[in-house]
Design a protein that fits this description.
The structure is a single chain. The protein is of the alpha+beta class. The chain folds into two domains: 2-53, no CATH class; 70-155, DNA polymerase, domain 1 (Orthogonal Bundle), CATH 1.10.150.80. 46% of the residues lie in helices and 21% in strands. Strands 1-3-2 form a three-stranded antiparallel beta sheet, covered by helices on one side. Helix 3 packs across helix 4 (106-113), helix 3 (76-96) crosses helix 6 (131-147) and helix 3 packs antiparallel against helix 7. It starts with a strand and ends with a helix.
Amino acid sequence: MQFMLYLIPVDDNGRALEEMNVFLRSHRILEEQHELVSGKNGTSWHFCLKYLEYGVRDNSNRTKKVKVDYRKLLDDKTFMRFSVFRELRKQIAREEAIPAYAVFLDEELAEISKIEELSIAKIKGIKGIGEMKIKKYGERILGMYKERGVEKDAQSGKSD
């Protein structure tokens, strides 16, 4: 992080102001402080800008997440169940006005999809799914899944 100082006289012809605007457009400003100062040399605006260069980020603690292609990772029958669970998750997320990943992650849905005979107890055993998710969404997603009659279609390999 760096600092830049600008003094722009009140009677500036626009040159100093344009110079500062060029700087503002080309840097990520983190903080700005300004003050109108009157002195023996006239009145001017004093700006202190705390900034980062665009494109310069500290990503040392971040790891890039690789997108998983579940169509390749899962067999056809399991992928069909996975797709149904994603639709159900989307419906719940829409109803509750929350992001879909807050209901279940794709990784969790893929694990749920691998379970042949679905039950709350089996869903509880999946990494990342705790009591809160089970309490909020477990019965609901299980009921919606059974209600759609997808279990029979998934076993026979049919899809809608």
